[in-house]
Amino acid sequence: xxxxxxxxxxxxxxxxxxxxxxxxxxxxxxxxxxxxxxxxxxxxxxxxxxxxxxxxxxxxxxxxxxxxxxxxxxxxxxxxxxxxxxxxxxxxxxxxxxxxxxxxxxxxxxxxxxxxxxxxxxxxxxxxxxxxxxxxxxxxxxxxxxxxxxxxxxxxxxxxxxxxxxxxxxxxxxxxxxxxxxxxxxxxxxxxxxxxxxxxxxxxxxxxxxxxxxxxxxxxxxxxxxxxxxxxxxxxxxxxxxxxxxxxxxxxxxxxxxxxxxxxxxxxxxxxxxxxxxxxxxxxxxxxxxxxxxxxxxxxxxxxxxxxxxxxxxxxxxxxxxxxxxxxxxxxxxxxxxxxxxxxxxxxxxxxxxxxxxxxxxxxxxxxxxxxxxxxxxxxxxxxxxxxxxxxxxxxxxxxxxxxxxx
Length: 407
Hints:
The chain is of the alpha+beta class. The chain has helices spanning 2-26, 371-406; strands at 36-43, 59-67, 74-76, 83-86, 90-95, 98-102, 108-109, 115-116, 122-126, 140-141, 156-162, 185-192, 198-207, 213-220, 223-224, 229-233, 239-241, 246-252, 261-266, 278-284, 292-297, 302-307, 312-318, 320-322, 330-333, 336-338, 347-349, 358-361, 363-365.
C-alpha cells in the first residue's frame, strides 16, 4: 500500500500547487497583489534506519506557500489619491478591528473627509507637529480638511515702480481722487479685510513743487485711508525718506463688519528715473477665504491640501511600515496583511527614507503576477498530477496481478 500513499501525497501536493497557480492567475489584475508559490519537501518515516540500506521515502508534502514581494509594474492614473510605493514598505491602514498593511494604493475620501480604501479602512499618517515637521510618535487618520481656508487681512505689502523725474506739478489742488488734475500718476491693486472680502485699493502719486519729492495717497473702496505720505528721492533716483521706504495707511473701517485695516506698504525699491511711469510689482499679504482645490503628495509621503486662495496646508505624512520578514505576514484578503510572530515586529518610517520606497501620487502598483510563468507552472503541476495518478493506476494493476496469482 506504500506506493498508493506515496502517489496520493503527490496528487495532493500537485493539487495544492495548482490551487496556488490558480489564485495567482485569478489575481493577475488585482492592484498591489503579491504572487505566491508552493514549496514542497520530501517525507521520510521517523525512527531508526539501517545505515547500510537506503530508505524509501513516503512521498511529498507542501511545507509552505511563500509570498513573493517583488516590485509590481507602476501605472499612472488620473486620481491624486491613487498612490504607488516604488520600493519596500506598506501603507498603514486602520479600522475598528485594528491595524493592517497593504500595497494597494487605491484611496478616496469618505463622507467625513477621511481617506479610506474600498473596504473603509482609513489611511494612517503622522500628524503635523506644532513646531513644524511631523509627529512620528503617533498616527492618525488622514483627513482632507473640507472646511474653508481662513482668510487673512492685508497688513503689509511692497510696491516696485518708477515715478517719472520730469513730471509736472498738478495744476489743481487739493488732492481729489475723482479729479485727475490733482495728482500725477495712479496704480490700483486689491486688498482683503479680516473677513476675506476683496476690496479695490488705489495709490495716487503727486509730484510736489519740491524737486525729488512726491506725496502718496491711498483709497480703499473709494474712501481715503490715512493722511498723505511723503516719498523723497536722491539725485540718483533712489528713495531716501522715509528710512526703509515704509508708508503707513491706517484706519480704514470696512462696511462688512470686519476689523479696521492698518496697512504698511514698502516703497524702498521705488525709483525716480527719467522716462515713463511704470509699476513692476505689487505684493500684499492678504487673501480671501479658500475652498479645497486639490491634494498633492510628494515622494516622501507629505500630503498637502491646496486651496483656491493659493494657500497650502500640510495634512500629514504617510506612515509607512516594513518588516524584517515580509514573507511571514499573514494574508487577510482585500490585499491586506497582518503582522505575525514570523514576520517580526513592524518597523515604521517615511517614504524615501532608509528601508522604505518612495511614494508616487497618481499611480498604482500592478500585481506582480507573471502570467507566462504561471501558465508554465500550471502545465508542470498538471503533468505531476497526471504522473501520480498513473502511479496509482500502475500500483492497482500490480495489486490485481498479485491477487490473481494467489487465487
